[in-house]
Amino acid sequence: MSKQPLIIFDTTLRDGEQSPGASMTRDEKVRIALMLEKLRVDVIEAGFAAASPGDFEAVKAVAESVTGSRVCSLARALDRDIEAAGEALAGAAQGRIHTFIATSPIHMQYKLQMSPEQVVERAVAAVQKARGLCDDVEFSCEDAGRSELDFLCRIVEAAIEAGASTINIPDTVGYALPVPFGEMVGELIRRVPNSDKAVFSVHCHNDLGLAVANSLAAVNAGARQVECTINGLGERAGNASLEEIVMAVRTRQDILDVETRIDATHIVPTSRLVSTVTGFPVQPNKAIVGKNAFAHESGIHQDGVLKHRETYEIMRAEDVGWHTNAIVLGKHSGRNAFRSRLDELGIQFASEAELNDAFALFKQLADKKHEIYDEDLQALVTDTRAAARAERFRLVAMEVTSKTGETPLARVVLGHDGEERRVEAQGSGPVDAVFKAIEQIADSQAELELYSVNAITSGTDSQGEVTVRLQKGGRIVNGLGADTDIVIASAKAYINALNALASRGARTHPQGVHEGP
Ligand SMILES: CC(=O)SCCNC(=O)CCNC(=O)[C@H](O)C(C)(C)COP(=O)(O)OP(=O)(O)OC[C@H]1O[C@@H](n2cnc3c(N)ncnc32)[C@H](O)[C@@H]1OP(=O)(O)O
Ligand SMILES: CC(C)C(=O)C(=O)O
Ligand SMILES: [Mg+2]
């Protein structure tokens, strides 16, 4: 039986970015978008063009960089938002304006303070306006999961009549349960007289941990687009995870009559990239992309897998991009192997000089570490790019003494506005001592909101990747640092965050206060 296409709409760069602290710069968005294009995602929602000048620029840059996927911008049902989306998407090979308005009684009454009639009127006007600027328009009924079915039928019919070719049914607050949600989507498709003129889509949030289950229930009921994010990143508890949807569809071809065009071998590198850029580590037991997803610890399982892999594995690790290194990168590798592996990971360099900087760091790392994994390369490039931004502070040297029964002492040499300064400080631990020493020079008066360490690969020679989040006067910045020595990685991350605080460069976060490295 021939399968129907299931459109994969990735919203990592828009809804994913709405996770507090997950903001991305324009260049980071382009880097992730190019990876999503490689993954063969059908639609990339690049941002919310009207949200801020930074996000407008990011949507524009993604639209101008990506040709293999459709690029989309979100817009409220307001002319100014739709015009901004249309303008940002003008350079796209394939663009889409995604406009939305809430349809649940609670949102219409308290948030929009509009009557249902006014909401329908606004939705129709928004779709018409968007169609005047772009021939591909998606309309979403925000909070559809808590909306009345009769009203949904009415507004969806009107939106299709006005020119929307995709109708999205979001479970905005993650309230739905799979069986009733599937029934609701099926009922909508049956009852809306012009439903055959649009693709029905779902966008599920994970507040009850059911985003993927709800999405698949809707697919079974006739939805042919799923909105999802890498690693399930997204507002609050996140969105449906792309990798879980894609692999569920692929693994259960026996009972699902849809297929996607995703090249799953890029899933793990994309997951790593998103995690590195946002500073959100992936939990070890996360389906598909967690480091334990294909690991077997117990004897009976190990025995079974050794005798016949499928006894305990329903997917092959290599099919989703685990350990795809055909060439092992190490200290004897040259520039060509390095460049080619980065190319496979979707990382391109703006100049030969940038490649050379990254290659020099790679050689330093290879001296410390036997084998360089893809994850190391992602971290290394992020580190090079983070270091390349406006450098008010620079780590020149550091030494930390940490002995049993003694208070740790850090001696740090910091480059500050062209001068080198030496300081020392004690702290409750080695990292605390280093941060205190750096602060003696920086005197940032910023609050440390988050400090997290993540081992990039396994083994004691693994690189540690550190995220530091600082907050000052409502402005939040992330700093990233990677090194085989986690205290040095911590110092780099702290300095990186201080440099971000010192720079006023354009950031994309909707509220303009969260900044990433
Ligand atoms: C479910 C979702 O994920 S929806 C997308 C959520 N994402 C974001 O909000 C990130 C981007 N947002 C932003 O940058 C800002 O909120 C902006 C630029 C869009 C708007 O900022 P402001 O003009 O300061 O408005 P503010 O955010 O305080 O309030 C939202 C306004 O939009 C209205 N609104 C909300 N949704 C819609 C909609 N779909 N269509 C029309 N108006 C809407 C609200 O009723 C409110 O109107 P009011 O100012 O008349 O009370
Ligand atoms: C804007 C819409 C699609 C959304 O993100 C939601 O309803 O969750
Ligand atoms: Mg959402």
From TrEMBL:
Residues 6-268 form the Pyruvate carboxyltransferase domain. One of its GO terms (molecular function) is acetyl-CoA C-acetyltransferase activity. It holds the Pfam family LeuA_dimer. Its EC number is 2.3.3.13. Mn(2+) binds at D15, H203, H205, N239. Its cofactor is Mn(2+). InterPro entries: 2-IPM_HCS-like, 2-isopropylmalate_synth_dimer, AIPM/Hcit_synth_CS, Aldolase_TIM, LeuA/HCS_post-cat, LeuA_allosteric_dom_sf, LeuA_bact_synth, PYR_CT. GO terms for cellular component: cytosol. It is an enzyme of class 2 (transferase). Residues 394-517 are annotated as: Regulatory domain. Keywords: Amino-acid biosynthesis, Branched-chain amino acid biosynthesis, Cytoplasm, Leucine biosynthesis, Manganese, Metal-binding, Transferase. It catalyses: 3-methyl-2-oxobutanoate + acetyl-CoA + H2O = (2S)-2-isopropylmalate + CoA + H(+). GO terms for biological process: L-leucine biosynthetic process. Pathway: Amino-acid biosynthesis; L-leucine biosynthesis; L-leucine from 3-methyl-2-oxobutanoate: step 1/4. Homodimer. Belongs to the alpha-IPM synthase/homocitrate synthase family. LeuA type 1 subfamily. Catalyzes the condensation of the acetyl group of acetyl-CoA with 3-methyl-2-oxobutanoate (2-ketoisovalerate) to form 3-carboxy-3-hydroxy-4-methylpentanoate (2-isopropylmalate). This is 2-isopropylmalate synthase. It comes from Bisbaumannia pacifica. The lineage of its organism: Bacteria, Pseudomonadati, Pseudomonadota, Gammaproteobacteria, Oceanospirillales.
